[in-house]
């Protein structure tokens, strides 16, 4: 069995750490602190220069829901074209209707533009009204992967739905488990759901290099400090990788 361990990163430093920790693919984005948005093309280029694993690029023009205006959808399409031309291995996308279903017509347009690339349906799936219906639609659309926490805030809480999705996917769509993936739950997740593809940031808080600091000015949300940086930890990635490999190797030996 071949597992996927995808690192979700928003900086060159995190991408390098994720590869060193043992990820075999990354999802590149910006602004992970708000759930991720489309990265800049130059972030992609520099990351591509620094690592040797596959890069799937998140295409999400803004924070918030996944019901997009015509202008926002035009940006999505142009960004996919840009990253395809730049050599990205895949794109991570999701577009919903106001009623909470996949926007089939728009996803079809995306699939046409992204032909030849790996396409992941991101956690817009977790905002769908009917996940089992959306799974069948994803199959029909030719989507390769669904990233999901089982429609809960973290994957451990959503493990019952994840188990059902893995069963119903019939190997046609890879169920990529995300949302709270870490070493202390990974064994339970594999054994209870049957999923062997996981997505994680493995983040730790790194102190800013700034020596001079002021508390009188805040550049964003009051709850966030300008002097702390979220960055992927190779150790956090490696712990999950080692557990995944042990479980899969054990299963392979039992089959033999």
From TrEMBL:
InterPro entries in alphabetical order: CutC-like, CutC-like_dom_sf
Keywords tagged on the record: Cytoplasm
Subcellular location: Cytoplasm
Gene3D superfamilies: Copper homeostasis (CutC) domain
An example molecular function term from Gene Ontology annotations: copper ion binding
Major subcellular location class: cytoplasm
Entry GO terms, CC: cytoplasm
Superkingdom of origin: Bacteria
Homology family: Belongs to the CutC family.
Descriptive protein name: PF03932 family protein CutC
Organism: Vallitalea longa
Chain's gene name: cutC
